[in-house]
Amino acid sequence: MTATVGVEVFLCDSAALVQGAEAVPFEVVYLGRNCRAFAFRFEGQVYAYLNRCAHVPMEMDYQPNRFFDSTGQWLMCSTHGAMYSPQTGTCRAGPCRGGLIPVKVHEADGKVHWHTSSQITQLEF
Ligand code: FES
Q: What is the pTM of this model?
């Protein structure tokens, strides 16, 4: 089956994304493999990335859906402490190479959607 690109997929209500609260997890297919992703709010904007560290492709949350370090300013991988910019996903410190893989998101009318791409698609049921 051919993957559909550029589709908006409902993720959650805007109210579910509060800075400092838990991220909202969702499932995608990345390069043909099921992969978890997460969305969060930071300084008013919604961002989403694959839950996949750029050091070793492991999930990063230290508790379920908790990704921020103690300052609340950086995403941190629980395995070896790599730190990433919440706005860009780029590596700031630690053993990561490159950065997190972003998922395009869009917020309007109190709803948040994510967008499929050539690499990131919906699960097929
Ligand atoms: S797996 Fe994330 S820092 Fe090593």
A: 0.94
